[in-house]
Amino acid sequence: MLSAYLEVIRIRFLMMLAYRVNYYSGIVIYSLNIGVYYFLWMAIYGSNQSLQGLSAVQMATYISISWMARAFYFNNLDREIAQEIRDGTVAIQLIRPYHYLLVKVFQGFGEGIFRLLLFSIPGMVVVSLIFPIHLPDPGVVWLKFALSLLLGFIVNVEINLITGLLAFFVLNNQGLIRAKRVMVDLLSGLFIPISFYPEWAQIVLNYLPFQAISYLPSMVLVKGLGGTEFMHALMIQAAWCVLLCIPIQAIWRKARKILVVQGG
Amino acid sequence: MLAIDAKELTKEFKVYQSRPGLLGAFRDLLNRQYRTIRAVDGINIEIEAGEMVGYIGENGAGKSTTIKMLTGILQPTSGELKVNGFDPHKQREQFVKTIGVVFGQRSQLWWDIAVQESFRLLQKVYQIPDQEYKQHLGRMIEILEIEKLLDQPVRKLSLGQRMRCELAASLLHKPKLLFLDEPTIGLDVLVKENIRQFLREINKELGTTILLTTHDISDIEALCSRVIMLDKGKIIYDGSLTQLKKVWGGGRKVLLEMEKEISLDELQKRTADLSVHWESRSPRQYIAYLEQGDGVSDLLSRLVQDMPIMEMQIEEATTEEIVRKIYQEGIPVA
Q: Is the Membrane keyword given for this protein (chain A) (predicted)?
């Protein structure tokens, strides 16, 4: 059965290749974003060497890393699922001997791998030439980062699944999807590292799954978290991966019961 | 073992009713009113393995809903259902390996990639051994004439081309039971014939049970010996096509054109003891409606002796006419 899921990854890879223009425009958008946030943050730093425990160089690294990581974990699975539910193609998915949601996860993974290889890695090389960032030398820290990034991907996918599946209950969840996207970008620490939030907000965010998507993986690399700090970050991520499975299962079960296939 | 065994199968939908007007819309926000619709109402279906069965009914009669229950997509509200020995909804992942489905109006192939990539993915999904896959696919490619389409993305195919690929896709894993939901919708005569021929061969060679829903009665005539007719969620006919014709399409229509003018009275007088109903188009053209199909010779023997008939045509009601009549007038539950 695993070979079927691997095939799903391959197919998604092919589909991404079929839509190359999307990919090129993505490169431009991400470069612009990194540029904008870099200059914004440098203006905020001014003559300060360090803010909230992050030096200016670390901040620049944080920005580039978290945007390039976003290219990997970000996907539109929620919109795809909602679309398939609305137009009824989910029916076709249900006559296949696989788990619909698992296939979606692997599709997202295929998309992520595509962007990681053809987008993030070359993009990172270019960015490191333009901006004064400091990336750690090849070594264990990159492995730790990869592991943490993968967990971040899973948490993000799980949140997407939940948002997408809500289309079973409210047939138009476009607004919800958009709200979720902004929330993830803001609360995951992509725009502003979590350490920059006010005390009370940090406490709240510590109890939400969003930090596991972007903030924790980026910090693992930028600060080179080691030992207990790293384990702590990883535990938080892993815990959310497991916890979020519960609402997904519940919603999926309920959804399959009330499924009304649209259009005939 | 029966391929399909449904007892008192029922599906109800809750649809919410919106109140009219702006005020109504506000009230809907706070308090929605629901209405229950019975799309499928306690139907019993038994289909033997290897049968080819036509499943017909008007739009909204509940055909698609039934198919969706039989394929495990929808959960029945009540009733018992066993398809290929499985409970389609509860044992979905095992069950769907034994069926193939073609929805005429939806594609099951991946839109943006070449047809053969879709096939390969399906091979992996259904875990078909390479050898078997190549052999079976090769055979289907040959009959369906899709060799040249394999490396094209699905979105570039015409409807007829796509439908042939869909059929191949649905049969890759040699399912025991094939559901076809309007497979020939919008296709030209040649493609239709090609597809029918293919289905007949598959049925004969692999013994595939086929359940076909369609609005094109000629599909049913070409393929199915048995037809199940659904109306407002209930089965109103289940039996052979010939029986359907005999019972509801028994009458014949005889068109007569005389050499000279003859009055309607005259004709009625001569055939008074036959169950025939006359209609006049012009003083020389008449139509005789016979209730029984075997009354034609009786009718003619009364007329030909001293009535010069110039032209004559005997028409039998087509299945399509019979079905239309049943849709319009309904029939007492068989």
A: yes
Strands A54-55, A50-51: pairing is: antiparallel
- With CA atoms as reference, the chain B residue closest to A98 would be B93
**Which CA distances in Å does B80 have to A77, B45, B141?**
36, 11, 38
Report DSSP letters for B275-306, one per residue: -EEEEEEETTEEEEEESSGGGHHHHHHHHHTT
pLDDT at A171: 67
Q: How many CB pairs under 8 A join A and B?
A: 72
- Optimal mutation site among B12, B35, B96, B106, interface A, most CBs of chain A within 10 A: B106
Bridge partners of B229, per DSSP, are B56, B237
| Contact between chains at B106 and A91 (C-beta distance less than 8 A) | yes
Of the candidates A18, A88, A257, which has its C-beta nearest B112's C-beta? A18
**What is the CATH number assigned to the segment(s) B250-316?**
3.30.70.1150
Highest mean pLDDT among A110-119, A149-158, B138-147, B193-202: A149-158
User: Which residue in the set A6, A7, A94 is minimally distant from B73, CB to CB?
Assistant: A94
Partner B, chain A 2-21, Cβ-Cβ below 8 Å: 3-4, 6-8, 11, 14-15, 18-19
Q: Which pLDDT tens digit goes with each residue over B10-25?
A: 998 877 777 888 888 8
A44 touches chain B (CB under 8 A): no
Residue contact A261–B74, C-beta within 8 A: yes
Q: Which CATH superfamily is domain B2-246 in?
A: P-loop containing nucleotide triphosphate hydrolases (3.40.50.300)
Instruction: Collect all residues of chain A within an 8 Å Cβ-Cβ radius of residue B72.
Output: 94-95
Residue B18 contacts by C-beta under 8 Å, 6 or more apart in sequence?
B24, B25, B28
User: CB of B127 within 8 A of CB of B94?
Assistant: no
Determine, yes or no, domain membership for A263. Answer: no
Identify whether A189 is part of a domain: yes
What CA dihedral angle connects A78, A80, A82 and A88, to 10 degrees?
-160
Q: What are the residues facing A50 on neighbouring strands?
A: A55
Reported ipTM: 0.80
Nearest to A30 by CA among A58, A60, A68: A68
Closest-CA distance, A15 to chain B, in angstroms, reads 6
Q: Does the distance separating the beta carbons of B107 and A259 come in below 8 Å?
A: no
Q: Closest chain B residue to A89 measured between Cα atoms?
A: B106
pLDDT tens by residue, A154-174: 999 999 999 999 888 886 788
Question: Whole-prediction pTM value?
Answer: 0.81
